[in-house]
Amino acid sequence: MVPPGGTTHIAEPADRTHSETMRVTGRPRGARKRRPSRIPGGPGTPRLPRAATTALGSLPGLAAAVSLVLCAHGVERAAGSADAGSAAARTTPAFQAARPPIVPRAVWLGDNARDQPPPRYDAEVVAVFVHHTDSPNGYDCADSPDIIRGLYEGQTLGRDWDDLGYNFVVDRCGTIYEGRAGGTDRPVTGAHTQGFNHGTTGIAALGTFTEGADVPSGMLDAIAALAAWKLGTSGTDPRGEVRLVSSNGGSRYAAGTTATLHAVAGHSDGYMTSCPGAALQARLPDIRTLAAGLQGRDTAQQATWKDTPNGIHEAPKRNVTQNEEQMS
Q1: Which neighbouring-strand residues pair with 264?
Q2: Dihedrals phi, psi of 98, to nearest 5 degrees
Q3: How far apart are CA 64 and CA 48, in angstroms?
Q4: How far is it, in rounded angstroms, from Cα 12 to Cα 4?
Q5: Neighbour tally for 126: CB within 10 Å
Q6: H helical segments located in 2-60
Q7: Does residue 5 come out as left (phi exceeding 0), alpha (psi in the -120 to 50 range) or beta?
Q8: Which residue, of 7, 38, 113, 129, is most buried by count of CB atoms within 10 Å of its CB?
């Protein structure tokens, strides 16, 4: 056993031949000079867990010494790994944006929620896909919750999806609504862009924005603020590009193909559709610049693409799960 704060003393078995007794040689009285501990576990080294020292007490002398050294080495390595993990966890991207105000889904959903499986999550959000809902534009913003609830019912009842496909919905007044369940501050796997739902978030503009339609400035500002915040969590420049692996051959890219897309892209960039409409698609460069500015980037300089050595963010390939892909 190891005395608290002392060094380890290991008794060797006594030689019992000829019934000889073991003699202990005395030492002259006086101050004893403490020697530095040669076995980890003494003063100045990480202490072992109580369970480990208890178990070691039952081992024979030499075996206990060897086990003690190995155990202490493991403790030191574990402590080093924990410190490294903590340092990594404290690392945050240099360019981030504030979280904009978001209306919770309970406001538009009320008591109309259907039974659904638990939300699915990705490691991070590295791209944003912008959509339009293909619904009338001349609505009163006070009616937005009712319109979003209608979209939810159309997708869950009409198409038998498990939830609203979009992660967020933005109305013409610039109000941002939480869409798909799972938490606005988490990388929820959406069902908005077939083949590219992983590592992305879907933002739907409430209305129809085909050629010639006016895109309200409040809506553009809100989409930019939302994109800046979500992309900032992964250090992605909204003006940059990302590499995404297609998970479905029904997209513009065969399953397993790596596509290089804008970090703020339109639905039609990943899927064969006219969404988000020509008018909104034409304003995506403005949204990218606005979002980059909100992250504190110098918009007069060229995009950094991604705050990593290779300059482009590559989202990991994920397996496709049921009811997560938009089929039209």
Answers
A1: 128
A2: -70, 150
A3: 13
A4: 21
A5: 28
A6: 50-56
A7: left
A8: 129
Tokens of 88: 């990594």
Per-position pLDDT tens, the chain of length 328? 444 444 433 333 333 333 333 333 444 444 444 444 444 444 444 454 444 444 444 444 434 443 433 333 343 333 343 444 444 444 788 899 999 999 999 999 999 999 999 999 999 999 999 999 999 999 999 999 999 999 999 999 999 999 999 999 999 999 999 999 999 999 999 999 999 999 999 999 999 999 999 999 999 999 999 999 999 999 999 999 999 999 999 999 999 999 999 999 999 999 999 999 999 999 999 999 999 999 999 888 776 555 444 445 555 555 444 444 444 3
The answer to whether 265 and 288 have CB atoms below 8 angstroms apart is no
Cα 31 vs. chain centroid, distance in angstroms?
A: 60
Q: Which amino acid is at 30?
A: G
What is d(CA 10, CA 68) in angstroms, rounded to the nearest whole number?
Answer: 12
Nearest to 234 by CA among 314, 298, 142: 314
Residue type, position 255, single letter:
A
**What is the DSSP secondary-structure string of 278-290?**
HHHHHTHHHHHHH
* Residue whose token pair is 């798909």: 180
DSSP state letters, 124-154: ---EEEEEE----S---GGGHHHHHHHHHHI
